[in-house]
Amino acid sequence: MVGKYTGLNLNLDKTVAFSHHQKVSISFAGVLVHSAPVKYLGVMVGAGDLTKHNFAHVLEKAYLVTKHWSKRNLSLLAKVLVSKTLIFSTFVYICNCSLITND
Predict the structure, then answer these.
(1) Max Cα–Cα distance, the chain, nearest Å
(2) Torsion angles phi and psi, residue 67, rounded to 5
(3) b/e map 59-89, b = 16+ CB within 10 Å
(4) Number of Cβ atoms within 10 Å of the Cβ of 36
(5) Tens digits of per-residue pLDDT, 22-39?
(6) pTM of the model
């Protein structure tokens, strides 16, 4: 109904829904519904605990950024700026998107 008046339509090729209760992949109204994890805005979401997977990716990225920027002759202030901008912000984003327990 909205698409008729605004010209906005759902791109069914890129649309995926996930269910915590569904065990098999099905299609509902042209949208694929499955329980496998889906990457959304850089974070794996879906059934199960994906915290370790998400943090493993961030740790690998932090290692690569550190390796890349360590080759440059930067002052201490520049190193802090690179760390806050490229590494710390990514950890904060993943922490906000993940369910972190005390286990």
Answers:
(1) 58
(2) -65, -40
(3) eebbeebeeeeeeeeeeeeeeeebeeebbee
(4) 13
(5) 555 666 667 767 667 777
(6) 0.58
pLDDT tens digits for 61-71?
889 988 888 88
Q: In whole angstroms, how far apart are CA 16 and each of 7, 46, 50, 97?
A: 21, 11, 18, 19
Closest-CA residue to 43 (of 23, 12, 18): 18
Relative to beta strand 26-28, strand 31-34 is: antiparallel
Beta bridge partners of 43: 40
Cβ neighbours for 55, distance < 8 A, ≥ 6 positions apart: 94, 98
What contacts 82, CB < 8 A, 6 or more positions away?
65, 69, 74
For residue 48 the two structure tokens come to: 């199960």
Give the C-alpha separation, 46 to 56, whole Å: 17
Containing 29, the helix (H) or strand (E) segment is none
